[in-house]
Amino acid sequence: MPVKEKCLIIDGNNLLYSSYHVSLKLPWKMKKGTMFFFLRVIISILKKGNYQKLLVTFDGGGTNFRKTLFPEYKAQRVSMPDELWEQMEEIKSLLKKININYIQLINCEADDVIASFVSQMTKIYPHITFDILTRDKDLLQLLNENINILKYNNRKPIIYTYNHFLNEYNFSPQNFVDYLSLLGDNVDNILGVRGIGPVSTKNLINQFQTVENIYQEINSLPKNYKILLENKQNLVLDNKKLVSLEKDIPLPINIYQESDFNWEQWKDNKELRKFCLDNKFMSVIKLLN
Fold first, then answer.
1. Buried/exposed 45-56: b ≥16 CB within 10 Å, e otherwise
2. Domain count, the chain
3. What's the predicted TM-score (pTM) here?
4. Which of 11, 116, 120, 130 is most exposed by smallest CB count within 10 Å?
């Protein structure tokens, strides 16, 4: 019987931005505040999580297929502030020094890399349990019995499981892309079907599972739904392409083996402790102890 391994995957950009916004709320200016909160969150989770594997992912920049398909994708987002970019580069440099594996692939978004990693590694190592640290709801589509979403709220890690999703939505996580295809996503500037809200969308996906099934049965829908949905099929199907995560991105051959992690050994990492001392991150050192 193979040993059940636990792997923590960190959505690096997601944690980076949330750490940055928390640092901006401080009543004083904190030098490298983003790095401080980034490390605090990671260490708080690693200390209690009993993980044997650890991987951080970052957006790779460039142009991916979503921008080609829909030029307005994420168009409303402002570019990364210089201060944040500098701290991100320093975080990546630090991760190398403290033996935490990270991956950043040009023209690939972090959540596509995550989807590819868990999909491909599950086929090779079916005994792995994955916890994905993110606030990006797109990653809910990956949930299954061995893949959880780890949320970090009020300094506490909260595991959101496959069963939690079923209880909340009443349909399978793999159909979450169909749900978002109808509802849209303001965060990514994806326009949904106007007039159909979260409850109606949930009911439709619960009944039909996929948007393709909905359009095959459109004449059987109540009149108000039919009026709202007709002539929107192209929009909805394009949305599905936008929100569906890529699972076939070529990854480095040894990425899983190079993501080994052992808390008892890592917590005494000299480079990490020196960095924290140099920057007076005393509460981070306290966490390590």
1. bbeebebbbbbb
2. 2
3. 0.92
4. 120
